[in-house]
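Dear colleagues,

As part of the handover before I leave the project, I'm documenting each prediction I ran so the next person doesn't have to rerun anything. This entry is a single chain, and its sequence is reproduced below.
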Amino acid sequence: MNSVKVKAAPADRIAHRIRTRTATVGIVGLGYVGLPLAEALALAGYSVTGFDTDARKIDALNRGDSYIRHIDSVRVQALNESGKFQVTSEADEFAGTDVVIICVPTPLTDAREPDLSCVIATGKMLARRLRPGQLIILESTTYPGTTDELLRPVLEQSGLVAGRDFFLAFSPEREDPGNDHFNTRTIPKVVGGIDDRSRDLAADLYAAVIDDVVPVSDARVAEACKILENTYRAVNIALVNELKVVFDAMNIDIWEVIRAARTKPFGFQPFYPGPGLGGHCIPIDPFYLTWAARRVGVNTKFIELAGEVNTQMPQYVVRRTSVALNGHGKPVKGSSIAVLGVAYKKDVDDPRESPAFAIIEALEELGAEVSYHDPFVPTLKVGKAGERLTSQPLTNEYLESQDCVIIVTDHSTVDYRQLVRHSRLVIDTRNATAGISDEGCQIVKA
């Protein structure tokens, strides 16, 4: 009697491969999100193929060189030697992968509306190669509904049906470069799918590399979760930024106020002011939410006001700089001004959306001669013309030659006592000079 083999359903096949760690994983986008995730999955035993359109990244990874400061080249070399990781710029390499994770940029347009062109382009690229049983996971930050309403129809142009022939989920990235307390493994992972099976498959994959996986009812909840997290931060930062302006006018130090308030053991969480928002999340995500809210006829006045406050902070810094220079008998025009730190946060090498851009451009428009120092960002393109600036060595001679130094990013590599000792005027937007005084230098908080 001949036995009949029953063909396993697509979901059962991929579930088995995920559980046994024989699944192959493709990651689209090898930046600050994709590369750490690729490393974690490869070290867990999965075979990982990384894809990126930037040939420089592919070449660097093949050489064993890192282009991300908090992932050193030794880790990249170990990843290459593991035999579980390869990189490519050839889309056909994804034809055989079981899982594809999308980690592409989702910036804003000039009109501050979502730019999902990279997500759509990736979806079209995958649709041409999609096969039954694959799991697709979107990690790029976006508005609620993107996975089901935008990415799903693009993928289904393949003729396959999501939830039946292939599986689709969303899991927001939560990377925090420069944070020594949390990493890819220790940051809880929220996961939602277009259906329960898609969610469960994605959750099983992440559970192999992340300590705490948090399943939610669907992809829209997971998408909204990331938007809530960053809007919460943006609104509270806007509050302290506005209070900074108010308290400056009252001659009250906002930093001392926050230091006192944080002694309350309940009902208060400290947020800190600055020269404006930067990075790939907090300056962008609230605008995704306001745009999505308008689509359903809802105005988000509170969130939009917070956005206005934060976007105005670079101009506030420029105004404070102008007033301080006038006090020294110097107009902004013709003054030599050094910007200290152009990365969007301390001790990282990522300048995306940094308030330093707006500050430098505004000062140059006023006629200042602007230079900068940042140990992690050797060159910087500013202005519509794309003027390229080069980081200057932070020598005593350099500081003494400047009419003003503006601390935009408070990198811990800088000796702030030395900076104050050799500067005439310091505009401190980060409280980096707290407790430092020098008779020859005026320090202005801004």
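The chain has two domains: 10-220, 285-445. The domain at 10-220 is CATH 3.40.50.720 (Rossmann fold).

All the best with the project,
I.
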